[in-house]
Every structure is written in structure tokens, then in C-alpha cells.
Specification:
globular; 3 strands; 479 residues
């Protein structure tokens, strides 16, 4: 099956190799960067440029961008690559479950299994055949950096900060802002890891420290708890692997110095960033406000009760009442729901997530459901605020089992990738485990799975390309 799929990719893409060969490396790199930037802001492109608001348009544009990325990444003859059996079984098993559920229950957000199985793996295959994969990942990283710096510029100049409120940058929801910050933090931490690995001087590394400090500043003013957990997990992961590598290499000073510099730069930069975000929009005098803007207060309240959304759904939404009487049953899901009943304090701390979890769990079946959303006690919730629960609800309980295996493999294989390829692929080696670990932590309390709706989901699925590969070419990457 795998060989057949790879042969299909070879037949479809090989005719394009001579055409792509006429482009210079610099031109292809720039176009790749533009493609990743476009994917990063895909939702805005569809909504404000195409004047549409639909999963179909987002997905169609996303698939086109992925095909263009694959073509731009062609630089030599394609040949079969050995893929890890465990990864293939889990990945394609999950995709098959998604697709079967789509066939059994017509969905608004359909086609995820086919997109992951064919579109994403097609790009994985092309990247694995590229002679300089570090340049491809550099395009990804540069796209994230340029988008972040542009967003920061617009935010500092035009997006006002309200005292007692949570800051959302160019977004309308501080929680969404925080989830994007986790990917940006992962990118800059991979740069920091590279700087530490080669002993780069402080002067040359200063831009990385300042931009990491800016990410941490935005995290603090957004007060996004899920993002704090994800970014905290990435930071702990980096310290842990660096301590481990330091013991092996019998040298600790490089990473300790890097961590201390990051702390100092963050502390020094914080009041500067805070003063700028408080005063610059007022000085410029042209604030940018969106119709969907909601002021989220530090105490958890909202000035306007407008919820966030993952997918526009206009049809009737399934409803469920979460009461003690409705959960008295002996099924496995009933027992799970009942075990959550005593956690009223935790429910308040988690902004009602325990109630949402119970509602979604009550609706579990093996076929899945049409929609992502659900009415809980008469109030529409945009999603389950947990990927495992959302997959089980949307695609059936079987999908949750495969997704669980995928998350375990993503963490273990990404760590193995870093520890065994740290020097060979140092410019992006830490990026892979950082994205995977941060994503797994973030999706415990948030729902991120549609790759062309939210960029963190795209980054996670895209990171699997290096995890599929069984053997990597023995070559050193130039600094």
C-alpha cells in the first residue's frame, strides 16, 4: 500500500521536476515562504478577500497551497522512501476511520482523512526527497517570523489595550491569539536551540532573544491559560533535553547562559513593550476595531457575549442537557460522566469545560456526528475544548483510539528525532518536538484539528513529515 501510494506521487509529480528546475533556488524559497504566510492567514484571506466564510473555501484554498508547496519543493528525481510501519498504521488507520465516518454521517467539516492521507503525505514524500530539507523548513520558519513581526507592528500601532482587559493582538479573541503564540514560540525556541548548539555569540543571537521576549510579553497580556500551559511545556522540554545533552557532552554553560539571557532580556523588555502597547495606538490615533471584537476581562467576564468559533454552521444544532438525573446509567460513558460530577470547583476554574466534556461524552457513538458544535443546557458551544473528546464526538469513538496512538507517537518519535538528528538538522531539530509537545498540551483544553482553519493544527500535522521517515540522509547542514 505504501509503495503504491509513493509510486502514485512519483507518477503525478515527476513531470513537474524539469519545469521547477528552471526556477532559481532563491525564487522557489521566496515563493515557499509566501505559501506558508498565505496558509498562516488563510482564514483572513477567505473571509476578507474572497468575501466568504466557509469550511469549503478554506479547504479548497488550503489544498491548492499544499499542492503549490509540493511543486516548489521538487529539486531532483523522486524515489521511494522507507516509512515507519508504526506511524503508517496509526496515521492511515486514523484517516480511514475519519473517511468512513464522513461516508456514514454527512459532515460540515468533511474530508479531513483524505486531506491528511493524500495531500499532506504527498508533501511529506516530496520533502523527504529534497536535497536540502533545512532550506524548506527555513521557509516555514521565516513565514512564521515575518507574519509575527507584521502582526506585532500592526498591534503596537493600531490595536488599543484596555486597562483590566485581556489583549488579543490582531485577533478578536485572546485565547486564539495565545494558540498562535505557541507556534511562534516553538519557532524561536528552535533558533535558540541552534544558537546554543553552535555557541553563537550574544550579539548575533540578540534578535532571537528579543523576539522570544516579545512572545512572552504577548502571552502575559493575553492571559491565555491554554497557551501558557503549551509554552510552559515547550520551555520545560527544552531545559530537560538540554540538561540531558549537557550530561552526555559534559558541558552545561551554553544552555544555562542562553536561559539566563532570555530571562534578563524578557525582564528588561517587558516595561518597554507594555508602554508601547498602552500608548502607541493612542498617539497614532487610528485604532483598528473589528465587528467581532469582544473585551475579555481579567476576571473572566466578557463585555459582549459573542463566542469564538471554529466552523460556521447554520443548520440546527444537536442539544443536550447536562443534569445528574440524565447520567445515571451503567455504560462506560455514563460512569466517566458521573466521575466528573463532583468537580464543580474544577468546572468553574476551567470556564465550564467539565460541563462541556460531560455533554459531549454523553453523545459518543461509533459513527460520529454531523457538526462540531453542540448546544449544552441551551447554550451553543463552538467545540468540545479537547481534541480527544472532539474526535470521538465528530468521527466516532474509534477515531479517538487512533488519535491517542498518534499523539503518543508524535511525542516519542519527535524526541527521538531531536536526540538523533540534533547536529545534522540543528536549524529546525527542536522545532518538531516543540510543535508536537505544545500541541498535545494545548489540545487538552482546546480543540484544534482542522489544518486550514487554525494554523496550530496545520503546524502539527505538517510536523509529521519528518516522523514518517525511517532513515535520514547522512549529511551535515551548513550554518
Amino acid at each position: 500500500m505504501i509503495n503504491g501510494l509513493q509510486d502514485l506521487f512519483i507518477r503525478l509529480l515527476s513531470p513537474w521536476i524539469p519545469i521547477m528546475g528552471k526556477m532559481t533556488v532563491k525564487t522557489k524559497y521566496r515563493l515557499l515562504t509566501v505559501c506558508f504566510i498565505a496558509d498562516l492567514v488563510l482564514f483572513c484571506i477567505v473571509r476578507y478577500v474572497l468575501q466568504k466564510e466557509s469550511y469549503f473555501y478554506n479547504t479548497a484554498c488550503g489544498i491548492f497551497l499544499m499542492l503549490f508547496i509540493a511543486l516548489l519543493s521538487l529539486d531532483r528525481t523522486l524515489e521511494r522512501k522507507p516509512w515507519r510501519r508504526s506511524m503508517c498504521v496509526a496515521w492511515f488507520g486514523m484517516c480511514i476511520i475519519f473517511t468512513v465516518s464522513d461516508l456514514l454521517v454527512s459532515k460540515k467539516a468533511c474530508g479531513l482523512g483524505i486531506i491528511l492521507a493524500l495531500v499532506f503525505t504527498g508533501v511529506f514524500f516530496v520533502w523527504q526527497n529534497h536535497s536540502r530539507k533545512d532550506l524548506l523548513w527555513k521557509a516555514f520558519k521565516d513565514a512564521v517570523k515575518w507574519s509575527f513581526l507584521l502582526m506585532a507592528l500592526v498591534s503596537f500601532l493600531f490595536r488599543p489595550f484596555f486597562e483590566g482587559g485581556r489583549y488579543a493582538g490582531i485577533f478578536t479573541n485572546p485565547n486564539t491569539f495565545g494558540l498562535y503564540l505557541y507556534v511562534i514560540f516553538a519557532v524561536y525556541m528552535s533558533d535558540l536551540d541552534w544558537n546554543v548548539e553552535i555557541g553563537k555569540s550574544f550579539r548575533k543571537s540578540l534578535p532571537t532573544y528579543v523576539q522570544l521576549a516579545l512572545v512572552l510579553f504577548y502571552l502575559s497580556v493575553s492571559q491565555a491559560r491554554t497557551a501558557m500551559l503549551a509554552i510552559g511545556a515547550i520551555l520545560i522540554l527544552w531545559v530537560a533535553v538540554r540538561i540531558y545533552m549537557g550530561k552526555q557532552q559534559k558541558r552545561h554553560w551554553n544552555y544555562i547562559k542562553g536561559l539566563l539571557i532570555l530571562i534578563v532580556v524578557t525582564v528588561v523588555s517587558y516595561p518597554i513593550f507594555y508602554t508601547a502597547v498602552r500608548n502607541l495606538p493612542e498617539i497614532v490615533g487610528h485604532p483598528i476595531m473589528f465587528d467581532e471584537d469582544v473585551l475579555y476581562l481579567s476576571n473572566g467576564e466578557k463585555i459582549e457575549d459573542i463566542g469564538d468559533k471554529v466552523l460556521a454552521e447554520s443548520d440546527a444544532i444537536e442539544s443536550v442537557q447536562v443534569t445528574e438525573e440524565k447520567i445515571e446509567n451503567n455504560t462506560i460513558w455514563g460512569r466517566i460522566v458521573k466521575s466528573l460530577d463532583s468537580n464543580s470547583t474544577l468546572d468553574k476554574i476551567s470556564s465550564g469545560r467539565i460541563t462541556i466534556y460531560k455533554a459531549y461524552i454523553q453523545k459518543f457513538n461509533w459513527q460520529g456526528h454531523k457538526r462540531v458544535t453542540l448546544k449544552v443546557n441551551g447554550k451553543k458551544v463552538s467545540h468540545a475544548h479537547n481534541n480527544w473528546i472532539q474526535f470521538a464526538y465528530t468521527y466516532g469513538v474509534g477515531s479517538m483510539i487512533f488519535y491517542f496512538v498518534i499523539t503518543v507517537l508524535s511525542v516519542t518519535r519527535s524526541l527521538h528525532f531531536y536526540l538523533t538528528n540534533r547536529r545534522r538538522n540543528a536549524t529546525y531539530a527542536f522545532l518538531i518536538p516543540a510543535i508536537c509537545v505544545g500541541f498535545v498540551v494545548a489540545t487538552m483544553t482546546e480543540c484544534l484539528f482542522l489544518p486550514f482553519e487554525v494554523f496550530p493544527a496545520f503546524a502539527y500535522w505538517f510536523a509529521f513529515g519528518d516522523l514518517f521517515e525511517k532513515q535520514l540522509e547522512e549529511k551535515e547542514i551548513e550554518e
